[in-house]
Amino acid sequence: xxxxxxxxxxxxxxxxxxxxxxxxxxxxGGAYFKFFMSPQGQAARQFDTLTYQVEVKNIRQPSVDxxxxxxxxxxxxxxxxxxxxxxxxVVPATGYIEKADGTIVQAEIPGRYDMLISxxxxxxxxxxxxxxxxxxxxxxxxxLRLRSKRIEVHSRVYDIWSDEFADAPKEQEVEGQxxxxxxxxxxxxxxxxxxxANSIEVETKExxxxxxxxxxxxxxxxxxxxxxxxxxxxxAYYEDEYNRRVIVKLEKTGERATTP
Length: 260
Hints:
This protein is mainly beta. Helices cover 12% and strands 52% of the residues.
């Protein structure tokens, strides 16, 4: 008989075994399509290395000391490896407090720190985004539970880029600026939208998409009222002590591309 009374084909292979094998093959195929193929069937871009930065807010000194260069880090939710720490930048945490006269001011919080951690990881980019190790999605502005051998903290993804975009824009000195603002960098790129209330994404030919923090004067202009996705913009920015790119000038220089 083709199928015996125990559900085996020719008395050798179980239908359940075949179903399990087919399910596993379908899962592997689906994962490959999601992470390594675009919707058009084109192979995804795969990089040897992605670099990304995460922000950790309002932590104590022991937590700062537990973040070490060279340490392997993992996704706290899944346990998957997501890279190796290469650098950390630490600044005093700040908050708004009320003074005796009732005024609200921003001041440093004693014993508390903010930290920007840079991490390198093998990664994949496809139409769905960036993936550490081809598995864990990295999206600007998203939350990430970061775990190492010494510490586990809640962080927020600040920026992501690949080593493919190695050429950095040239610096130029601008008269009338002070401190790090003495070296403003002017670039032109494509506006890819807001990341949050204080940051936007700009894509350039040299570096690809990067995150930029809006300076106070730029935030007041309400860029969302005159910019649309795909618009060409010119910006001038400087890097603060946190290595964040802070925009001090922003203007639209071209309309977004339209589909006929």
